[in-house]
Amino acid sequence: MAHSSVLENVPLIPGSLSSITHPSLRPDTLSRARLWKICSIIWNASPLMPLLVTLPIAFVVTILKLNGILIFVSNAIVCAVLSVILGKCTEDLSEHVGTTLASVLNATLGNVIELIVSFYALKAGQFDVVKSSMMGSIFSNLLLVTGCCFIFGGYNRVQQTFNITAAQTMSSLMAISCASLAIPTVFIATLPAKMDESTDILKISRFTAVVLLLVYAFFMLFQLKTHIKFFDNSEANAIIAKTSEEVEEFEDSLLGKRECCVILAITTYLVS
Question: Is the pTM of this model over 0.85?
Answer without folding.
Answer: no
